[in-house]
Amino acid sequence: MSGFNLDALKQYIPKDIPQMPRLPAWTKSHSSMNPDEGEEESDPAVTSPSMGKGKQAEMPIDNNSAEPAMVLTEPKPIQPGPKENIDLVNECDNFPYYQTDTNMFFAHINTYYALYVKDLPDVELGYILPSVAQVFSGLPDWKLDNKERILTLIAGNSEEERSKAVAMTCQALRATNHFSVLRGWRNELYPVYGPDRELLFSIERSASALFGVVTYGCHMTAYTYAKRPKNEAEVGGDGEELKLWIPRRAKSKQTYGGMLDNTVAGGIATGEKPFESMVRESAEEAGLPEDLVRKSAKAVGTVTYFHIRDRRAGGETRLLQPECQYVYDLELPEDVVPRPSDDEVQGFELKNVEEVQEALREGEFKPNCAMVLLDFFVRHGVMTPENEAAYSEIVSRLHRRLEFPMA
């Protein structure tokens, strides 16, 4: 953070930006969960075995701030080599659990700053790195409390007003070119919800990780039952083999370039319903006919996790990314072949279960896509308590309850 010119940021604050349209909020009913009050703080010497050795988290630069927070190591991908399914879960859902690692949970809680809006002073909306939070010191529309480690959006009394203030700040941050994560600017708005599922504000997609807010996406696995010759021990005609359509991400993508993905995946924008997002992404990424997707795609649940970003995500590391993915299955006829419709996918390959499992073991999949595939294997009886020792833990970890309000 040394050498950062805050005045330069201030002068880039736009005087005005176009009014953003009011978009519908979703229906109500969910509240956030926070750990019990009164717990003892963690041991400063504690480090997370799952985080690996790496660059230390940056501390606040304000000399008048509270005492320095815990020193946390930088998250890194799991070491090369065969990975167990539980390793894949640990790699994606890598924010510590209060219930199982209380010391490390509080090491993180006492390091990051909590995000609030002034109208909901008791509701945490996200966690922010100290090095990011300090940029907001003295900025219009924001209040930074270093003693309590809180960043509050104090501007706006409505979703539209708050969204405008957040947009102005994000545009200013982008103009300074200080955060590399903003070089992937998408011109897409992500929603941030309150405890009653009300839409509090919208934020530029690429900036969401800076604020550590919950983001939403849709992931679909397209599969088919392909004919295969039966072996000598089998009786009758040809058998059927479960195969999945697996795309490889373009190497040029800012995030997880060149890694394997789910058949279709994308973010859900403000005001967009999950299924409509799925239909749109299916056409954009895989060239799948809209009528086929609307007729045959099935909603099969969600996958949730709390991710600490590593270098493969693009931009700054240690940014927090709590996410909820709406999951869909689509059984395709053998004659329907997904094809890239944009520059985000290199191509698709039809892989059988053993080939997909091998790619998972070798760490070829984007971390959250590995989670979606594990969920697919559970639901389709590929992974069972009989063939997976960590079955119950994996199943529960695929559906983490996040600490923030959700849609």
Automatic annotation (TrEMBL):
SUPFAM superfamilies listed in its UniProt record: Nudix
GO molecular function, one term: 8-oxo-dGDP phosphatase activity
Domain of life: Eukaryota
InterPro entries attached to this UniProt entry: DUF4743 (IPR031804), NUDIX_hydrolase-like_dom_sf (IPR015797), NUDIX_hydrolase_dom (IPR000086)
One Pfam family recorded for the sequence: NUDIX
CDD domains (alphabetical): NUDIX_Tnr3_like (cd03676)
Occurrences of domain Nudix hydrolase (ranges): 227-373
Annotated stretches, region: Disordered: 20-59
PANTHER family linked: THIAMIN PYROPHOSPHOKINASE, THIAMIN PYROPHOSPHOKINASE 1
Designated name of the protein: Nudix hydrolase domain-containing protein
Organism: Salinomyces thailandicus
